[in-house]
Design goal:
The protein has 387 residues and is an alpha/beta fold. It has 2 domains: 126 residues, Lyase, Ornithine Decarboxylase, Chain A, domain 1 (Beta Barrel), CATH 2.40.37.10; 249 residues, Alpha-Beta Barrel (TIM Barrel). 28% of the residues lie in helices and 22% in strands. It is built from 11 helices and 16 strands. Strands 1, 10, 11, 12, 13, 14, 15 and 16 form an 8-stranded mixed beta sheet that branches. Strand 2, helix 3 and strand 3 form a beta-alpha-beta unit. The longest helix has 18 residues. The protein is elongated and about 70 Å long. The two termini are 17 Å apart. 45% of the residues are buried. The chain binds ligand LLP. Ligand LLP binds next to strand 9, helix 10 and helix 11.
Length: 387
């Protein structure tokens, strides 16, 4: 993770930029691999969290699968080295073009979210004389206790099939000859830090499977992603508790030796390895309410503006006296604020600040709003930190 030793090397790059700590990414992946192998579980990386090629190459090289939500993500996953037979494709609004592309690439499984989608996949697979492997995404109505915008497993959310729709799917499935129903898929939300929620998901998955598919011989179950990271203390907890997360499922999910348990994690894999590094342009305001205006904006990292997300910010170039600042960007919206009234060592024009834990849903959600430059990227192994 970023620290004061790396400053000289970093100062040569134009700001703002995402800094990716490749060693931390590798350590995180090693830990996840160790824990998932130990439980015999399969992990797909949720590409939506960060689609940076270098990061995808690193993840693919360790043999993880990919979880995609668009045809372009499927395409990118294959280009970056993910095995199509380890790619799953979810989403409520897959277009014919996206389904056709994925069928032609022979991906592992479609996570199907509506009865109409089942019919369309069947029809497109039939035209190709192939059988498409499909899992039904069930809506378990489990409360994730996270931000409303990133809760997905409640009846009021658009995701997955309701019980009524599952019954309809079961009724028509025998006629859909080009579909092989291999299992079930669940995903209840993101940034979940209370493992009890995953216990509840396991128990609900057991119950739904027994009630809705009592005679099933499914070979696949996917419990989604959602494991949260420590935004408050990233330096203390750089690697999430994969062991605790996976063992919650091991202990609570009814499973059979024939059935493979899969996950699709995004944030917990890439969140802590990325920081947004930005330079202070101006300091303004009265001494009682100082604004540190930085050269990164909500277009570079939208999480604080969109979800009220709080990211830890450090001043890389000052050890001065502590004062309070609002850290804000240059974009013409009041929402363009990274933090309000936070304590930082004395900040002045030209200082470098790092907004930590920005590896997930950072670069990938950036835009050119206000016609700003595309956010730069620097990898830890391309800078020389030796003194
Ligand atoms: N699987 C499905 C079906 C998903 O919808 C998601 C995330 C994941 C897996 C990966 O979840 P993760 O392990 O990353 O929590 N932009 C928001 C987060 C949106 C999450 C969308 N779905 C944020 O910045 O917090």
């Amino acid at each position: 993770m970023l620290n004061h030793n790396k400053i000289e090397a970093l100062e040569q790059f134009p700001t703002p930029f995402y800094f990716y700590d490749i060693n931390l990414l590798r350590d995180t992946l090693d830990e996840l691999k160790k824990q998932s192998d130990r439980f015999g579980f399969t992990v797909h990386y949720a590409i939506k969290a960060n689609a940076n090629h270098r990061i995808l190459n690193e993840i693919a090289s360790l043999g993880f699968g990919a979880d995609c939500v668009s045809g372009n993500e499927v395409k990118l996953a294959i280009e970056c080295g993910f095995n199509p037979q380890k790619i799953v494709f979810a989403g409520v609004g897959k277009t014919n073009t996206e389904i056709e592309f994925s069928l032609d690439k022979n991906i592992f499984c479609f996570h199907c979210e509506s009865v109409q989608e089942l019919e369309v996949i069947n029809q497109l697979a039939k035209q190709r004389l192939i059988i498409a492997k499909v899992a039904l995404r069930l809506n378990p109505d489990v409360k994730a206790n996270t931000h409303a915008h990133i809760t997905t497993g409640l009846t009021e959310n658009k995701f997955g099939l309701s019980i009524e729709e599952v019954l309809e799917a079961k009724r028509i499935l025998p006629d859909l000859e080009n579909i092989a129903l291999i299992g079930l898929h669940f995903h209840i939300g993101s940034q979940i830090t209370n493992l009890e929620v995953f216990k509840e998901l396991s128990l609900k998955a057991n119950q739904m499977e027994t009630e809705l598919f009592p005679d099933s011989k499914f070979t696949y179950i996917n419990l989604g992603g959602g494991l949260g990271i420590d935004y408050a203390n990233p330096q203390r907890n750089p690697i999430p508790d994969f062991k605790g997360y996976l063992s919650t499922f091991k202990d609570n999910l009814n499973n059979t030796p024939e059935r493979n348990v899969h996950f699709e994690l995004g944030r917990s894999i890439v969140g802590q390895c990325g920081s947004l590094v930005t330079k202070v342009t101006f300091i303004k305001g009265p001494s009682t309410h100082q604004f540190a205006i930085v050269d990164a904006g909500m277009n570079d990292l939208i999480r604080p503006a969109l979800y009220d997300a709080s990211h830890r910010i450090i001043n890389l170039t000052s050890n001065g006296e502590i004062s309070k600042y609002d850290v804000v960007g240059p974009v013409c919206e009041s929402a363009d604020c990274f933090a309000k009234s936070i304590e930082l060592p004395h900040v002045q024009r030209g200082d470098l600040l790092a907004i930590l834990s920005s590896g997930a849903y950072g670069e990938v959600m950036s835009s050119r709003y206000n016609m700003r430059e595309i956010t730069g990227v620097v990898y830890s192994d391309e800078i020389n930190t030796e003194k």
